[in-house]
């Protein structure tokens, strides 16, 4: 039956067969390249996938270049967000991590300049990815360009993990943070947790979730979905069984895999509804749902489009219809993206989720 399928189509079928997870998708977005303004009664959360596509001097793409460092995709994304806050009723922006490709000042300066375009216009949070720190988990450059003091003047900034430790570069100063905002009568708490967060960070995150147990909760963490085990060869990143990952990249023995994050944090809170992640461009787009200890469904959604750069994710919330419309939008081409070379199925990029907002809606 697979005789005439190409490699990526076979890969997609393998993924579906291997995840063993059910989906709560209630319909595909109508196929129209144009992005319409959000409908009445809706609001949007924008998720920026990995922004590793840097060009110029010393970058992985152009190591011999003498040109200034740039990131046109990242720039187009934040420019678009700034221009469309009202049209899409954008209430929050979340970056899933791998903000930079090489952990150096040249790229961090560009990252901050790009995020400056939305700074003060809309609440946002940034998760720290594996490219944003050292293998031991030192994120001091991220902390230099996105410190807590950058955000503490905003009422929506909830706080950060600031446990006194021997090396403040490890997990400190906004490397793990949370934000509070409200939209259409619903109060939200969203946590941004570093890649492979160690136990002390997880304990802090559990405390935050307990403190705000009556809010609709979202967690963004860089490395959640992808190959279950670390692939032994390149093609395994495409073809190996996928789901909640059981391996780590950062923090060594102290680091927690996504599966451990699920068991120690995600599954414990009945108000957790969504988890956003990136990290795996060779997975590109994926979503599953799991059920927490209280029987609550948690939708876990990966978007990492570095194989076909440009798209960001719009999550358009419609509480009165009990749904979230997921739209993948290419800001460079100014149109909705329906497929990629890695994931050709349009339903993996644009779809609708059924979500129960009733427990969180103010009476």
H and E string: HEEHEHEHEEEHEEHEHEEEEEEE
Distance between the termini: 54 Å
What best-fitting shape do the alpha-carbon axes yield? globular
The DSSP helix count reads: 7
Q: What integer value in Å does the Rg equal?
A: 19 Å
Mean pLDDT: 91
**Classification by helices and strands:** alpha/beta
Query: What's the CATH topology name?
Result: Purple Acid Phosphatase, chain A, domain 2
What's the structural domain tally?
1
Q: What is the CATH architecture descriptor?
A: 4-Layer Sandwich
Amount of beta strand: 25-35%
CATH superfamily label: Metallo-dependent phosphatases
User: Uncertain segments of ≥5 residues (pLDDT<50)?
Assistant: 1-26
Largest sheet geometry = 8 strands, mixed
């Amino acid at each position: 039956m697979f005789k005439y399928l190409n490699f990526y189509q076979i890969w997609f079928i393998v993924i579906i067969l291997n995840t063993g997870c059910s989906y709560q998708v209630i319909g595909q977005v109508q196929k129209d390249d144009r992005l319409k303004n959000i409908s009445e009664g809706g609001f949007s959360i924008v998720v920026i996938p990995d922004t590793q596509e840097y060009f110029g001097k010393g970058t992985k793409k152009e190591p011999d270049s003498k040109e200034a460092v740039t990131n046109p995709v990242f720039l187009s994304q934040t420019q678009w967000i700034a221009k469309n806050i009202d049209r899409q009723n954008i209430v929050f922006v979340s970056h899933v991590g791998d903000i930079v490709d090489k952990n150096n000042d040249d790229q961090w300066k560009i990252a901050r300049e790009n995020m400056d375009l939305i700074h003060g216009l809309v609440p946002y949070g940034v998760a720290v990815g594996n490219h944003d720190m050292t293998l031991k988990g030192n994120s001091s450059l991220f902390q230099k360009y996105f410190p807590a003091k950058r955000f503490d003047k905003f009422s929506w900034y909830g706080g950060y993990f600031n446990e006194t430790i021997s090396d403040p570069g490890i997990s400190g100063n906004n490397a793990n943070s949370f934000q509070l905002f409200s939209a259409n009568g619903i109060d939200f708490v969203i946590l941004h947790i570093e890649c492979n967060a160690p136990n002390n960070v997880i304990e802090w995150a559990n405390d935050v979730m307990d403190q705000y147990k009556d809010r609709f909760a979202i967690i963004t963490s860089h490395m959640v979905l992808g190959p279950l085990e670390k692939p032994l060869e390149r093609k395994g990143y495409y073809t190996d069984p996928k789901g909640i990952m059981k391996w780590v990249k950062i923090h060594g023995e102290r680091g927690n895999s996504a599966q451990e994050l699920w068991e120690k944090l995600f599954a414990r809170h009945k108000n957790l509804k969504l988890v956003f992640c990136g990290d795996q461009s060779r997975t590109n787009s994926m979503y599953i749902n799991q059920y927490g200890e209280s029987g609550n469904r948690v939708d876990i959604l990966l978007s990492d489009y570095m194989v076909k750069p440009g798209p960001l994710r719009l999550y358009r919330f419609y509480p009165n219809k009990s749904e979230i419309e997921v739209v993948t939008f290419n800001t460079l081409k100014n149109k909705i993206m329906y497929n990629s070379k890695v994931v050709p199925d349009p339903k993996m990029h644009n779809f609708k989720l059924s979500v129960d907002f009733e427990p969180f809606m103010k009476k």
